[in-house]
Structure formats: structure tokens, C-alpha cells
Amino acid sequence: MQLPWWWELGDPCAWTGQGRGTRRMSPATTGTFLLTVYTIFSKVHSDRNVYPSAGVLFVHVLEREYFKGEFPPYPKPGEISNDPITFNTNLMGYPDRPGWLRYIQRTPYSDGVLYGSPTAENVGKPTVIEITAYNRRTFETARHNLIINIMSAEDFPLPYQAEFFIKNMNVEEMLASEVLGDFLGAVKNVWQPERLNAINITSALDRGGRVPLPINDMKEGVYVMVGADVPFSSCLREVENPQNQLRCSQEMEPVITCDKKFRTQFYIDWCKISLVDRTKQVSTYQEVIRGEGILPDGGEYKPPSDSLKSRDYYTDFLVTLAVPSAVALVLFLILAYIMCCRREGVEKRNMQTPEEQMKRPFIHVFLNLQ
């Protein structure tokens, strides 16, 4: 007899000896069994809360291992389940995600990643993201809710922002915590700020870049924006000097003294670096004066009068029909005259005298005899 799946988690019952066929659940096994059931149910019905800060990069990994246990039948102990799992994410009640939130999953056998930079407009407003996992082998689904509570950040936004273009990375590789940490560490060594935050990460494909050829392990490239509280260092300013600008216009690499601090792991295109000093930007914000939301009174609606004069379209109909008919008739007469009265043979025969018409057969007979 084949035992049910939960029986292989551990025999929940033991013989008591109080009577043949009487079984009870031992205390140790009871705790294990209930813990397993509670874990499964908590995964199915739990909502997860996260608390990102506005203006700071938010990354949330959708782990396949977390969802594998929700697609029965569960594998036996010792077996490895590697079902293809994909995810669909959307704002609750809407077909897509918020504008600041992106999602990427390279293959059904890799984890999905939600990432983006929350905006200040959404501070204090819980954003509920519905996450639906699809098992592509069993066609079963599991749904979770991710509640994003955006918090206001101190000194938002940071006044000095720099955007780097890294050529040898894909966006999902850059989103890994250890890789992003290494990059921020290299930037901190060059910039020496007191506060340094990753603001946003964007794939080069989202900026109009081309999909790389699948040769030589080519990457798509990724833009990483970071912010700091101190002015840009002299190394970052080197790309702005005339010599480097000329080299960039000639599609040559500029000479940057601190490039060696990145080159061991990150290949930066210094010609595409963007330095933004928000302390020098003139604010163009105009305060919006909101009204009461009521349109001005335009008076009572007056529909057209029922006593409209009737119009006779008979004359218009005759003109519309007669003019094309007259033109067509004239053209027909001209064509008939040309085809019937202006034929070449008939015209020449009519121009000959009776004597010429009598001589014409004898000349043809004489020429035929010769």
C-alpha cells in the first residue's frame, strides 16, 4: 500500500499497547507534524511587509525555493525538485506594477527580482504588490502579497548624484547584494563621502541599447546612479576636461586616474558618466492652485428647437445627377465621332474624285500582272 505524502515526514502515530489497533501521536512527533503544517499554511496565507526609503534603491528577490513547497505533490526526502517557476507581479487591482518598480527574471530556473527607486509621492501610502508564481511543470499557481511601506528618507534627495555605465554587467548580476556592495565600496574609495546610497539601477536595454550578441560572454550593460552628500572628487571631474572630452568625441577611452580602482571587477564607460549637482539647479516647480473641482456654471442647456424648417433636397439631387450625366454624354459623343466619322480609310476615300476611284483597280491589276 502506498503511504500518503505526509506520512513520510515521520510516523505521527505509535502503538500504545492499550489495545490492538489503538494508535496515538507521540509528543515529539506531534510538534514536528504541526510545525510542518504551520509552515506550509503560513507560506500560503502570509503577507510580507517591507519598508524601503524614498530615493534609495529597493531590491526584493523572489526566491524559487520559497515557492517550491507550495506545489504538491511534494518530493520525497532525498529527491531534488527543480521545476521551472515563473512569476507575475502587479499592483493590486491593476494589471501592471507602479511606474517606479521593475521586474526581471532571466530564466524559469532563476530567481525573480523586483527593483526600483520609490518616489516621494508614495511616502506613507502602502503599495500592495500581488505576486503569482506559476509552476510550468504542474501548471499550478501560488499567490503572495508584498506590502511596500515607503518611508521618508533623511536628506532626500542627496545633493550630488553620479550615474555610471558598467559595460560588463547585466542588471540581475548588478542587483546581487555582494556585487552592488563591491561597487559602492569602490565608489566610496574614490569619492570619500560621509553618506553614499545607491539611488537607481537601469538596464541599458531600457535606455535604447541593443541586445548583445551571444558571443564572448557579452553583457547588456547597466546604469547605476549613486548619491552622496559631498561634492564630486577630482577623479570624477577628470572626464569633464577638454582632452578627455575630445577623446570621447573620437570614440576613444578617456584617461581617468582612478579607473584602476574599478577595473578589477567593473568596466566603466567614462564617456557616459553623468554628474548632477542639484545644489546648482534652478527649481522650476510651480505651485498648483487647486480649485473646488466644479466647472463654472454655463447656464441651462437649451436643445435645438423642434420647429425647424424642412429643406427640399430634390433640386440638389437633380444637379448632382444631371451634371455628371451631361459631361458623360458629351464625352460619349466626342468618342463616337472620332471612332466612326474620323476613320483614316473612310476619310481618304471620301477625298478622291470619281475618276481616281475608277483608275485605282486597273493600276492594282497592272501591278499584279507584272
Automatic annotation (TrEMBL):
Q: What InterPro entries does this protein map onto?
A: Cadg (IPR006644), Sarcoglycan_alpha/epsilon (IPR008908), Sarcoglycan_C (IPR048347), Sarcoglycan_N (IPR048346)
Q: Which residues form a coiled coil?
A: none
Domain of life where this protein originates = Eukaryota
- Know the name of this protein? Epsilon-sarcoglycan
What the record says about family reads: Belongs to the sarcoglycan alpha/epsilon family.
Keyword annotations of the record: Cell membrane, Cell projection, Cytoplasm, Cytoskeleton, Glycoprotein, Golgi apparatus, Membrane, Transmembrane, Transmembrane helix, Ubl conjugation
Q: Name one Pfam family in it.
A: Sarcoglycan_2_C
Predominantly, its location class is membrane
Localization per Swiss-Prot or TrEMBL = Cell membrane, Sarcolemma; Cell projection, Dendrite; Cytoplasm, Cytoskeleton; Golgi apparatus
State the function annotated in the UniProt record.
Answer: Component of the sarcoglycan complex, a subcomplex of the dystrophin-glycoprotein complex which forms a link between the F-actin cytoskeleton and the extracellular matrix.
- Where do transmembrane segments lie in this chain? 317-340
GO CC terms of this entry: cytoskeleton; dendrite; Golgi apparatus; sarcoglycan complex; sarcolemma
Q: Which organism is it from?
A: Bos indicus x Bos taurus (Hybrid cattle)
Limits of the Dystroglycan-type cadherin-like domain: 49-157
